[in-house]
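Thread: "does anyone have the structure for this chain?"

Original post by V.I.:
We have the sequence but no experimental structure in hand. Need at least a predicted one for the grant figures.
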Amino acid sequence: MKNKFNENHKLILTGLILLCLAGGFFVSAGVAGAETGTAPVYVIEVDGAVTAGLQSFLDRQIEVAVEDDAQLFILVMNTPGGLVDATLKINELFLNAEMPVAVLVAPSGAIAGSAGAFILVSSDIAAMAPGTTVGAAMPVAMSPEGTEATDEKTINFYASHMRSIAREQGRPEDLAEKFVTENLTLDAREALEEGMIEYLAGSVPELLETVDGTEIEKQGVTYQLNTIDAQIKEPQMNLREGLQDWVSDPQIAFFILMLGFLGIYFGLSAPGTIVPEVSGLILLILGIYGIGLFDTNTTGIIMLLLGAGLIAAEIFTSGFGILGIGGAASLLAGAILLPTEPLMEADWYAAFLVTVVGTVIGLLIIVLVVAQRVLHSRRKHQSGSDYFKPPERGVTVEEINPEGMIRTRGELWKAHSSNNKQIPKGTEVEIVRSETLKLWVRPVQEAESAGETDE
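Reply from O.Q.:
Generated one for you, tokens below.
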């Protein structure tokens, strides 16, 4: 009986051990399957110029993807080119990313021109949809006559850089170099035959199916891709990156720059209007940033300082609200482009931006109220109200011929000679009449002489 009891216990114990081992096996298999089956794939689509905003966006998203243990980062690209500085930073970003990076030129009819060719060559996995084209990466320079090939020294530098990238990624160096030196272009099938790309794929799902099971070796680490059932994440640009992307588009940046120059020119041609000068200055700074002469951090700081200066100028001068509105707009743009500090939490920036927007709205309300009161008082002055009578006399602070400035009651006024005669600087004048914000004046001596003659 005792032996039978022990045998039963042995059978139960053996069964429990086998059950635990089987459970452990299935749990292990389940975990492994979860890791490979649910490891996400990040997909970013680019349809347009390569800009500083795109570079900032890709930089942030690759960092997010690495933290999310993503197995692959895909850039779906259709671009005619873009900024050199942004392109070189994207090359560096892709080459040093702690995960495989794929570039897909799609859909059919898309191109990877100029900067796009550099980006495609720097990827770990290069693919193109049928009917797409890559190449024509010779750098160009802007001139009054249009665009033209840059100097030979610059071409040689970028050709060497393209060759270096191709060598690092195991692609034909001579062919990559010709993208720059000879403006070589290849269609998708030619690029595949020449070894410039690894796959033909018309879409992201087709590419994921094609690369499933592929091993990618990068910086001494081997990555196994299991992309058939991978979760696809398609993040979008935030406000800061969107503004950067819009402003740094070469066509828009050039347009903004020209508007800035025109605003300043018209402001200097017709002083006192304020609007062209303020808007021109803000647009000029954004245009300089857009063409790549200022980096994002520098532009953000300049816009914040400009905004503070314009707000201060509104407080101490009668800008009729224009300086305040310009300052508020500049503060808002500067806050959006504010340098990102790696040691600060993302929530801090969101809270800071809300604070800035609230402050700007508050300032705008105050400025508009003050401007409305000033305009109201000016209208009373124009209508001859007893509340605000125009001055009776003043002294010229510059020669009036036939227009100039006079000082009266501690204020500077624009004046016009009533008989269009020249009035020297320092002459005491009498106000004959006022129209809007301009005074019509004549010398006091002349007025007194006229009075004696009348007598």
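V.I.: this helps a lot. DSSP finds 15 helices and 18 strands in the chain.
O.Q.: and Residues 1-6, 8-37, 341-345, 383-387 have pLDDT under 50 and may be disordered.
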